[in-house]
Amino acid sequence: MFALKARWPLMAVAIVGLLLSACAPTTSTGTGTGSNSPTPGASPASKVLRMARNAEPFSPFVPWQIDDNPALFISVNVYDTLLRTTKDGTNVEPGLATKWESSADGLTWTFTLKDGVKFSDGTAMKASDVKASLDMARGGEKSAWKDVYKAIKDIAAPDDKTVKITLSQPYAPLLSVLAMFSGGVLPADMAKATDTKDYDNTLAWKTKGTGAYYSDSWKKGDPIILKRNTNYWRGTPSVDEVRIEYIPDDNTRVLKLQGGETDVIDFVPFSQIAALSAQPNLKAQTFSIQQTAFIILNTSKPPLNDVKVRQALNYATDKEAIIKNVYFGQAKVMNSPIPQGTYYDKNLVGYPYDLEKAKALMASSSGASGFKMDMQVRSGNTNFANTAVILKDAWAKLGVTVDIQTLDTAVVRTNYREGNFMSTPTAWTNDMNDPTEIVNYAMRGGASPFAYWTRYNNPDLNDKITKADLEQDATKRAALYSEIQKIYSDAAPIASIAYLGATAGWRSNIDGFFIDGLSYYRFEDVKINK
Amino acid sequence: MGRAAYIRRRLILMAFVLFGVTIVIFGMVRILPGDPAFLILGDRATDQKAAELREQLGLNRPFLEQYWMFVSGFAHGDMGQSLLYRQPVGDLVLTRVPVTLALSGYAMGLAAVITLLFGITAAVNKGRWPDQLIRIGFLFALTTPNFWFGILLILLFGLTLHWFPVAGFGDTLPQHIWYLFLPALTLALQLSAVLIRNLRGQIIQTLRSDYIRTAHAKGLSESLVLLRHVLRNALLSTVTIFGLQFGFLVGGAIVIETVFALPGTGQLLIQSITARDYPVVQAITVVSAVLVILVNLVVDLSYSFLDPRVTYE
Q1: Is B39 within 8 Å of A413 when comparing Cβ atoms?
Q2: Which has more pLDDT, A324 or B247?
Q3: pLDDT at residue A320 above 70?
Q4: How far is C-alpha A412 from the geometric centre of its chain's CA atoms?
Q5: What distance lies between CA A200 and its chain's CA centroid?
Q6: Nearest residue on chain B to A19, judged by CA atoms?
Q7: For residues A73 and A139, is the Cβ–Cβ distance under 8 A?
Q8: Which residues of B236-259 are buried (b: 16+ CB within 10 A; e: fewer)?
């Protein structure tokens, strides 16, 4: 017994050694090449772009039924629209339509389709396919986007190359609406089938579009495989296959990129952009998208019903400090309540940080004696949580005691619908390059969603919002939107913070990956270099 | 009563336990504030649209009716439809069970090897440096949060040494074994921390008993005494803890699956709770409960192999 004691540690070491060597055969296949760990299912000759994303799609992969970011961010790679949003997201360019013109009264629009466009299976795309798809988008039972098409009275396809859209009233944002992902074109028979009862997500992922890529099938939990469309009208993409994996944890995604197990990742934490870019074989970037970050103030809860209180909170918000400490410099100071897209007013002064002015305003307001205010933060969102901590400190200087409540997203949503909150951090992203969406959702009061749940309601502003939708003249529309931004900014139902961007990181042998102004990921120009 | 009767009785008891589990989980997910309809439709949905969806999903029916649909469906093997993904819960959950089971089984296997190795080493070196080192080392493993421990392992074995992949599940069986090693090791190290302490104590106690002295006196070799006489007697209580810890593993897997991006039930459970996807949460809970109960039954049955004196009454 006693003689044996000393041998036990040695035996332990020996067994550990054996265990490790047992693992060696499996590991050696991947270790030798380091950054080129094998990609399953791909022959060495084919070029596969491996992407790791933070979320999985859940709505059916039918353009007008898509209601979640993970699906819509990649939908434009499969389905084309009549018009496309430009790279910077502030204008439209030809898509399936090469040219378009409107009648003098602005009620009839005629689109001429590009010659020789084919679906991924090689069949020709015709005007009747466009008509069928748009009809489903604006009237289909399961369409999630009917509202944006409600100005359209009729769509006709007089011949294979012409689409005629008739409006019931002039609608200035029409071209922007037609560049939205929800108007993606499917073959007419498939488009019509999407409303049938047994048309489910399994069928939807067997796609037939005119876009750069197509999908044969996808099941939740598996990687999404996009295969290149050799019939693509802008030229066959260089990358054969895009393989999108779901990696929910931010750190794990970054580690996978560093370890060479993936080529592109999205949602890189702002804090890691600089560090990743500094590495020799990696790049990370913040792309400009039309997104704002702000605090919703419930204007129906005293003393937030006093405009001076709300303005004071805005002046006491040190936006630069938040941008530096929360977004690591990867954001811009927000001066207008709408994102930096079309008709955004860059000359609006907004609320530059001015503590003295804030104190003076608060002193002359109904909140002069100080008050307590809840701030409901969605759990898991570090950026919102850190913003809340900074604001708690900043607004304390005005005598406001901010009570930070970290709640489940589900609870925050229920609370703001029911008006059961005083303030909550949130973000808005434009789905189209026209302010009509945000002003109607976030500024129009009186009915759900009550000006983005702020309960702010200004009938004069509501009228101007309607007028701006009908106005055909771009200069007059710009003037109207400037006025709308000014009125809303002065009333301050929100505390403005920053214009945010979308982040991504990739290996430096990847060229041409970009996120456009409406946060779509486009793979068509991506190249993999040696 | 023989073993068969014992198993029969345990299975009947299991039905009662499961009944309790269904009531608790059904009630709990509905007590949670938050409306699935708004979570599915997003921030911009109107009240009317949400009402339509609630109607369509059966969420506006009386609680008792909803509970009956859940339980009777389950009894017939129909777990209902996922609110979020609009596909049968059975497809969604059952395809993921093997991943979680493989991870837990792998972790238990690794934990068994680690426990035997270090438990015995610590015991026979009682009070000397290998013992101290093992006890301090595993105290660290026990007290470190497993998601952080997982990231440390990724940094060391994935990024620096390139021995194992950073995260993911792989496509083929050898790949699965390779990909699952780090997450299983993360769970196993924590699990063995508890087991090693127990096994060490049991071995030390057994070593003092008379029959061990007799065995030595008979001139049996040291390793034979240790393996046949000491270990077999010392293992009994460790095996009990081992079985009980399966529940811990299923819980730990929830976090670990997210860190290592494994498509198991844990990851799905987190998504489903966040989205208030009631049928999926219910199904995963019940399936996990069944697994935990079955594993504990197997553990109880293993006693008679370890100790022939154990009978089932």
Answers
A1: yes
A2: A324
A3: yes
A4: 20
A5: 24
A6: B113
A7: no
A8: eebbbbbbebbbbbbebbbbbbbb
Is A396:A412 a contact under the CB 8 Å cutoff? no
| Min Cα separation B76/chain A (Å) | 22
Beta-bridge partners for A500: A291
| Digit-coded pLDDT (tens) for A189-223 | 999 999 887 788 888 999 999 999 999 999 888 89
Q: Record the tokens describing residue A163, joined without a space.
A: 């689409």
Closest partner residue to B35 (CB to CB) among A219, A222, A414 is A414
Question: ipTM of the predicted structure?
Answer: 0.78
Kindly state whether A68 is in contact with chain B, defined as any CB-CB distance less than 8 angstroms: yes
Please state, in angstroms and as integers, the Cα–Cα distance from residue A293 to each residue in A271, A429, A465, A499, following that order: 17, 9, 22, 6
Structure confidence by residue, pLDDT tens digits, A62-110: 999 998 888 988 999 999 999 998 887 788 999 999 999 999 888 999 9
Tell me the per-residue pLDDT of B181-232, one tens digit each, with 9 for 90 and over.
Answer: 999 999 999 889 889 988 998 888 888 888 888 888 888 887 878 877 888 8
Q: Give the amino acid at A499.
A: Y
Alpha carbons within 13 angstroms on the beta-carbon side of residue B289 total 20
pTM metric for this prediction: 0.82
Q: What is the mean pLDDT of residues A286-294?
A: 94
- Flag whether residue B130 sits within 8 Å of chain A, measured between CB atoms: yes
Interval A505-512 mean pLDDT? 95
Torsion A461-A467-A468-A474 (CA) sign: negative
- Inform me whether the C-beta atom of residue B154 falls under 8 Å from chain A C-beta atoms: yes
Q: What is the DSSP letter of A51?
A: E
CA-to-CA distance for A443 and A428, rounded, in angstroms? Answer: 13
Burial class (CB in 10 A: 0-12, 13-18, 19+), B12: exposed
Q: Which long-range contacts (CB under 8 A, 24 or more apart) does A345-350 make?
A: A345/A481, A345/A482, A345/A485, A345/A486, A347/A482, A348/A482, A348/A485, A348/A486, A348/A489, A350/A314, A350/A489, A350/A496
Give the list of residues 6+ apart from residue A295 with CB closer than 8 angstroms, or none.
Answer: A313, A375, A387, A391, A423, A424, A425, A426, A494, A495, A497
| Distance separating alpha carbons of residues A449 and A417, to the nearest angstrom | 8
